[in-house]
Amino acid sequence: MSSVDLKALLEQMTLEEKIGQMIQLSAIFFDSADGELTGPAQEWDLDEHGLSMIGSCIGGLNAKHKREIQDRHLATDRNKIPLIFMRDIIHGYRTIYPIPLAMAGSFDPSLMEECAHMAAREASHEGTHLTFAPMVDFVRDARWGRVAESCGEDALLASKMGEAQVKGFQKDDISSPESLATCVKHFAAYGGAEAGRDYNTVEISERLLRSRYLPAYKACIDAGTTMVMPSFNNLNGLPSVGNKFLMKKILRDEWGFEGVVISDWEAIYELCVHGVARDLSEAGEMALDCSCDIEMVSRAYYDTLADLVRSKRVSEDIVDRSVMRILELKKRLGLFEDPYHGSIENSDVLLCPEHKEIAERAALESAVLLRNNGILPLNKNIKRLAVVGPFANSQAIKGTWAAMGENKDCISVLDGLKALLPHTEIKWALGCEASIDDPSKDKIAQAVEICENADAVILCVGEPQGYSGEAQSRVDISLPGVQDELIDAVTSVNSNTVALVFNGRPLTLVNLEKKAAAILEMWHPGTQGGLAAAKLILGMANPCGKLPMTFPKHVGQCPIYYDRTRTGRPKKNSDDKHEICVSDYLDCGDLPLFFFGEGLSYSNFVYESMVLDKNEITKDDTLKVSVTIRNDSDTNGKEVVQLYLCDLVASAVRPVQELIAFEKISLAAGERKTLDFFIREDMLRFYDSECRYISEPGDFTLSVGYADHMRFTQKFTLI
Ligand code: BGC
Predict the structure, then answer these.
(1) How far is the CA of 183 from the centre of ligand 1 (A)?
(2) Which of 25, 504, 655, 668 has the smallest count of CB within 10 Å of its CB?
(3) pTM for the model
C-alpha cells in the first residue's frame, strides 16, 4: 500500500483542485493535443490548467491511449494525483461471455466469479481501473430493456450473482493489475420503472423496496464493492442522486457504506429536468447533501460548487470528505505508485484461448432447454441439416454493453455446426430479418425449400442485440418482424425443427412453443455462442441452465413473476376457464408460458426424497433439509436444486413461494447424491406491515422443485 499522506495532500489542495477530483469527464475531453483544447473541453471553457485538476476519466481506447492521457495529466497536475479510468465492463471486455441475465440462468455463482475475473484481467491490462458493475437491479417486467444487464426476478439469485461479480472483479486486491474495482448500480429500484419504460418513475412501498429491491445491492456492499452509483429514476418522489432516504439513511447510516458514490451519466443535471432543482447550483447542493462524491459528465459541481462553498451554502468539510474518499480509492488502487495500474500494451490475454474456454463454458451453462420432444440431442450422423433464421449465420450475438467486444469475434451457429459436423450436408437460409422495421416475407420461401429436404432444421430466431439494454424498452415482446411466419412456414414442412432463441429479455413465444420440436434458449451468448449452441444440439454438452425470469404468454401479463404475494381469490385450478371471481385473465389465464427456475436436461433427474431432521425449530436451531436425487439416465448432467419457502400464516401477506436456497450439482449417469440445506431463523424473516424485519412463530413449508413442479413439500414449525 502506498505511503502517500492523504491528509497532507488534501491540505495542500485549493478548493478548485478538490472540486476537480469530484468531476468525471469522458476520454474525449483529454484528447487535445499540444495543449490546444478542442471539442467539449472548449465548450466547458476548460483550459489546460482546469483539465489538469480533473479526477477521473470514463472510457479511453486501450492501454496506450490511457497511458498517454495519464502522462499528460501527471505532467500538468501540480499535485500529481493520478486519474482513475472507469468504464462499463458488464459481461466481458474483449472476450464476451453471456449477458448477465443469461449468467443468472447458470445458477452458478462460482462460474460468474470466474467470468468476472477474466473480464477484469483483460480490462485491467488495457488500463481500466474500475468497472461500473455489477448491475443488480431487481426486475419483474420484461418490457424493460435493461433486464438483459440484470440478474433477473429473484432477490436471492441476484444477491449471489452480484456478490460473485464483486469477488471476481476485485479478487480482494484492487491494486492488482489483474483486478478491477467495482461499482454496484443502479441504487435503487431502477428496475421498478412503471410499465417497463426506461427512466420512468418508481413508486413502491418501503416494505417492497426493502424486501425485494435492496438485498442485492446490500450483498454487493457486504462483499466489498468499492463504489455505488445511484439510479436515474425518481423513487417515491425523489431521483436517487438527490434522495436522502436512500443515500443517507439507508446507504451511509444503516449500511455504513464508506466508499465513493458516483452519479450516473448527467444525473445531477437531471435533477433540474425532473423539476426538483431550480438550477445546477441547487442540483449540485442536493447531490452533495446526499454524499455524491463524483459527478459523471454534467457540470453542476464544475460550474457551481466553488461558489456554493464560498457563499457558505455548502461546508468545505463536506467537500473534503468526498475528496478524501476519492483519494483513498486512488491509494487503494495503488495509483500513486503505479498510475498505469500495470497496464500492458497489446496484452496477449485479450481473446486468449483460456478466456474463450471460460466464455464457452458460460454459454453452455446458461443455455436453457425449454422443450424437447426427444429430438435433441441430434444424432451426429445426420445427413442433411437446414440451418435457417436471422440468427443462423449471425455473429451479432454478443449482447448489450459488450465493452470492446466485436461481432466479428463471435462464432455463429452455422460456423459452430459446420466445425462439428464435417460430414453433414448443411444448407443455410436467412428466411427473414429479426427487425421490426423489416416485414418482408420474400425470403421465407427459400428457407422453406431447404427445410423440406432436410432431416432436421435448426431454426434460429430472436431479438437483435440492440433491442435490449439501456433505453430499449418494448411494449411488444414477441419475436420481432415476421419471424412467427417463418416459424409457421418451416415447421409446416419439417416437424423435426429445433428452435434456438437469441434474446436479451423474456419473449412471448407461444407460437414457437406450439410448433417446434425443441426450444433451446441461448440468450445473447457472447463470443463463443454459436459453438456452444452446436455442442448442446449435438449432445457434446448437456443443457443445465434454468430460467432466471418468468416468460409470459402475453405482454399484458407483465409484470409476472414467481414469488407473487397471495391473493384472497386465487385460481384453484389453472386449467379451469369457468372459475368465477378469481384473480385471472379472461383471455390468457394466470400462468406464464415458462416458469422461473424451469429448464430441462438430457439426463433424467429423479428426486427420490426430501427429509427434514426435525419438525420444529427454535430461534437458535438449524434445520437440516436433505434432498436425494438420482440421475436415472446414461448421460452425465447437472441439476440446479431449488428450495422454496412458504410462510403459511403471518401478520402480513406473504409470497406463495420464495427461493431460499439453491445449488447446482453434477450427477454422473446413474449417480445418486444427497444434498443438505441448512435453514436458520434469520432465513424466515420478512418485513411486516410496519416494515420491521422479523420472524414470527408458526408453520412454514419447504418445497423442492420449481413453480408448480414441486417434487416434495414438507411442513415445519418455528416455535
Ligand atoms: C448508464 C450506466 C452506465 C453509465 C456510464 C449510463 O447511461 O445508466 O449504467 O454505467 O451510463 O456508461
Answers:
(1) 11
(2) 668
(3) 0.98
